[in-house]
Amino acid sequence: MYAQRNASSGPRSRTGYNRPVPTRLRMGLVMRRDMDFGPLGDMEPALRGEGVSLAPMSTGDASLSASGVTVLPTATVSDITSGAVKGLVVPGGSTDEASMAAVLSLVDAARAKDLPILAFGDAVAMVADRLEVSAEAEGAAFHNGKVALMNDRAQLAAVVGAIS
User: Fold this and answer.
1) How confident is the model at residue 87 (pLDDT cuts 50, 70, 90)?
2) pLDDT at 1
3) How does strand 88-90 pair with strand 25-31?
4) pLDDT tier for residue 66 given thresholds of 50, 70 and 90
5) How far apart are CA 118 and CA 139, in angstroms?
6) d(CA 127, CA 101)
7) What CA–CA distance (Å, rounded) separates 29 from 56?
8) Which of the residue ranges 6-10, 64-68, 100-104, 113-117 would you say has the lowest mean pLDDT?
9) Would you list the DSSP string of the chain?
10) Per-residue pLDDT tens for 133-163?
11) pLDDT computed for residue 44 by the predictor
12) Closest by Cα among 33, 39, 23 to 59
C-alpha cells in the first residue's frame, strides 16, 4: 500500500522518542503559589523519571495558575486518608497564613496515615518543624519518624526507589 505513495507519506520512524518510565506509585503534589523546589531545581521531571505520578492537590482555590497555565487539582485529602496516594510532595512556596494552614493540614493527614513526605526548598524546615524532627538540606524525606536528606538527584532516586 505504501509503495503507491510518495516516500514522504509512508510510515515514519520515531527516532529520538523516549518511552516514559512506567508509573510505580502516585503521590500528591501540594500546589502552592510561588512553588519552588529550591536549589535542586524542578523536581517534577526527576520524580516522574523515578516512576512517580504526581497528583496536584490544592491548598486553597479550586485551581492554581502558574506561568499562564491553569492546574486543576486531581487529588484531595480524602485521597490521602483512603490510601489512593502513596505519599506527599511539598515544595517551598507562598507563606501566607491561609495557604500554610492548608499545607500543614495535608502534612498532618499524611503523617496520620504514615505516608512518606518529600519536602523541598523552604518546605523542609516547615515540615521538619511540624513533625518535630531536625532537617537541614535542599530536600528531605520524612517517614516513620526518620529523615533522609536529599542534596542531589542521586539521593532523590535512592529515597524514591525505597518507597513502595
Assistant:
1) very high
2) 53
3) parallel
4) low
5) 7
6) 12
7) 5
8) 6-10
9) -GGGS-GGGS----TT--PPPPP-EEEEEEE-TT-B-GGG---HHHHHHTTEEEEEEESSSS-EEETTEEE---B-HHHHHHTSSS-EEE-B----HHHHHHHHHHHHHHHHTT--EEEETTHHHHHHHHHT----SSEEEEETTEEEEESSHHHHHHHHHH--
10) 998 888 999 998 899 999 888 888 888 888 8
11) 83
12) 33
The grid cell for 129 is 518543624
Residue 94 CB: number of other CB atoms within 10 A?
Answer: 15
Say which residue the cell 495557604 belongs to. Answer: 99
d(CA 55, CA 10): 39
- Quickly count: other Cβ atoms within 10 Å of residue 63's Cβ: 12
Q: Which residue has the cell 496515615?
A: 113
Which residues contact residue 130 at a Cβ distance below 8 angstroms, ignoring those fewer than 6 apart?
104, 107, 108, 111
Q: Which of 76, 97, 96 is nearest to 88 (CA)?
A: 76
Among candidate residues 7, 45, 15, 13, the one with its CA nearest the CA of residue 29: 45
Q: Work out whether strand 117-120 and strand 64-66 pair parallel, antiparallel, or are unpaired.
A: unpaired
